[in-house]
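User: Predict the complex with dinuclear copper ion.
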Amino acid sequence: MKWRKLRTFLLTVLVLCLIPATRYYQIDEPLLRYFKGTGEVDPLALHLSGEFVENNLGTQQNADGSVTVRMIAQQYLFVPHCILVPAGVPIHLRITSADAVHALAFSGTEYNVKVLPGTISATRLEFSRPGEYKTVCREFCGAGHYAMRSELKVVPREQFRVLRAGERGSCAAQ
Ligand code: CUA
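Assistant: Here is the predicted structure with dinuclear copper ion placed in the model:
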C-alpha cells in the first residue's frame, strides 16, 4: 500500500517536471535576453507597449521634413500591409520582427533590410520619384515565406503634406 502511494507521488512529480521541460522554449528566451541585456525590444510584447504598438506603426512626419516609418515583420506579413511615403524625402525606417528572421526588400531597388526578433533595424531610405513598389521578404522564414508580400506607395511630397496625420500612416485612407 505504502509503495503504491510512493509510486503515485513520484509519477506526479515526474509529470510536473515534464510540463515545463517541454515548454522550455517559452521560458528561456525572455529569460536569456534579460540576463544578456542585449534585447532592445521584446518580440513577445510588441503589441503591448513601447515603440511598436499598433497606433505608432506606419509613416510619421518629423519636424525636420523627414519621415519615420515603423514596421513589424512577422510570419507571414509586414505590418502595416501598405506604407505611404513622400518622394524625395529622407525616410528613417525602423523595423523589428515578432518571430523569425526576415529581410525586407523593395523590388526594383537595392534596399534589403535584415530584420531580427529582439532588435530594431534602423535604415535610411529615399525614393526620388513617386511610384509603387512591391515589398518582399528575402530571407526564408517558413512555410509562408513566398507569400510574404506587401506594398510601398511613394507619392509626391505636396500630396503627402496635405494629408491629415491619420491618413499618412498607411495606404488605408487612400
Ligand atoms: Cu519573412 Cu521570409
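The first helix runs from residue 2 to 22.
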